Amino acid sequence: MQLRILGCSGGIGGTLQTTSMLLDRDILIDAGTGVTHLTLSELEQIDHVFLTHSHLDHVAALPLIVDTVGPIRERPLNVHCLRQVKESLQEHIFNWKIWPDFGQIPSKEEPLLLWHSVEVGDTVDVDGRKVTVLPANHTVPAVGYWLNSGSASLVFTGDTTSNDALWEVVNKIADLRYLIIETAFPNTERELAIQSKHLCPSLLADELGKLKVQAQVFVTHLKPGAGTQTMGEIEEDASKFCPRMLANGQVFRF
Question: 190-227, pLDDT tens digit by residue?
């Protein structure tokens, strides 16, 4: 399996793009603005999208993907997410006011978009590649994902704050190779991080202290303008875990 980082910022501006990752050629993990890096041909190959939650920075490109390539594909786009996420997107985006409901176009019987509800603990097998739904602790219903190739694993926490339930699962993954974990705010914004259910460097250090298996740690979702400060604080608070900043275009093979 190969995971290519399309976007990993908490905002936009210049080269910054919001969260989206391409697994092999046909699976998206989140559909933030990073999807705009893909060519039309690459977009056409995407068969599955796994959403962590409904916030705009993680779903912004989804309506445009299905509108752009849906009519030229021979099969529908499969979107996997929590039931609450599906309901939010259907009510607020795919509602014929903000965007057409592609779950009913060209017909309910043969739509361009198919919704698949998942719950924490579920595993979706996509041609031998296993995607397991992990618990997240955010301001809206949210999850992370465990990607398992059969020989190694990668965990993406999604947007989350302190989350003991996550580590109970992660610490049982014997073949964990990579951990991608968010840290949205610097320590000077610790209270905002707590209120918005994100992490800051001091909270990140607390969470990584719960990790009992070996893994390479990468930090995602840094806010624009605060990246240098936040990574400097991470170096001070969590240096023993050797966390590195995730970057657009980075590729993980596992």
Answer: 999 999 999 999 999 999 999 999 999 999 999 999 99
Q: What's the predicted TM-score (pTM) here? A: 0.97
Q: Which domains does the chain have, with CATH numbers?
A: 2-253 (3.60.15.10)
Q: Please, are residues 77 and 65 in contact by the beta-carbon 8 Å criterion?
A: yes
Cβ-based burial of 147 (10 A; exposed 0-12, middle 13-18, buried ≥19): buried
Shortest CA distance to 85 belongs to which of 131, 46, 30, 45? Answer: 30
Mind spelling out the 3-state secondary structure of the chain? CEEEEEECECCCECCECECEEEECCCEEEEECHHHHHCCHHHHHCCCEEECCCCCHHHHCCHHHHHHHHHHHCCCCEEEEECHHHHHHHHHHCCCCCCCCCCCCCECCCCECEEEEECCCCCEEEECCEEEEEEECCCCCCCEEEEEECCCCEEEECCCCCCCHHHHHHHCCCCCEEEEEEECCCCHHHHHHHHHCCCCCHHHHHHHHCCCCCCCEEEEECECCCCHHHHHHHHHHHHHHHCCEECCCCCEEEC
β-pair type (113-117, 77-81)? parallel
Cα separation, 171 vs 61, whole angstroms = 33
Pairing of strands 143-148, 153-156: antiparallel
CB 3 within 8 A of CB 243: no
Give the whole-angstrom CA distance, residue 129 versus residue 141.
Answer: 25
105-140 pLDDT, tens digit per residue, is 999 999 999 999 999 999 999 999 999 999 999 999
